[in-house]
Fold:
Amino acid sequence: MAQRKEERILEYVKQHAAEGDPQSVVDHIDKYCSQKEWAMHVGDEKGLILDQVVKETNPTIVLELGTYCGYSATRIARLLKPGSRLLTVEMNPENAAVAKQMIQFAGVQDKVEILEGSTEVIIPSLKTKYGVDRVDFVFIDHFSERYTADTKLLEECQLIKKGSVLLADNVVFPGAPDFLEYVRTCGRYDCTYYPSHLEYSDKLDALEKAVFKGP
Ligand SMILES: Oc1cc(-c2ccc(F)cc2)cc2nccnc12
Ligand SMILES: [Mg+2]
Structure:
């Protein structure tokens, strides 16, 4: 028995999902985490909203804050057109190691790059170190205490442009009240609220979409 829950999830996927099939990987993570061990993936219900927003945005460059086991990176990457890139930031090296294997097993490794470290260090290095000019879509799913600071950092680093889409998880639970206040009142975002439920739970949660209107 693998020691960590994240390793057990990966083991279950490797033993039961279809290799090279990202939908199968997503479905099996949802099956394991709804039946055996809860884990903080965006999940199937909020995942359908994520899918819809990714499809309507059709992004070329995606930034994800908070990789965890690679569930949402796999979920997003399966929808991206050829030649697009997803850069995902994870500060926990053990989670990054699991995510790397999950993404590889799903067969989306050519689109996904895992950046290990903290967002406050990595975001300012995206242009110089990772050759990013602008990001079209940002999935914010790390620590709600960092949502606002990292959004301001994306603005300051000129990484988001008019039309860039931010989508934030957990704006109700655990909650990101200062982020909601910021994007809804600073005047630079068109916001949409998507009520849903916490992954694998009946607790209320929601996603907030914030489309950048420009500086
Ligand atoms: O989706 C999430 C849920 C939770 C979470 C915490 C405590 C609970 F009791 C339930 C759920 C934490 C998260 N941290 C980072 C990114 N996403 C998260
Ligand atoms: Mg989350």
Residues 40, 66, 141-142, 169-170, 174, 198-199 surround 7-(4-fluorophenyl)quinoxalin-5-ol (ligand 1) (CB under 6 Å). The chain is about 45% helix and 25% strand.
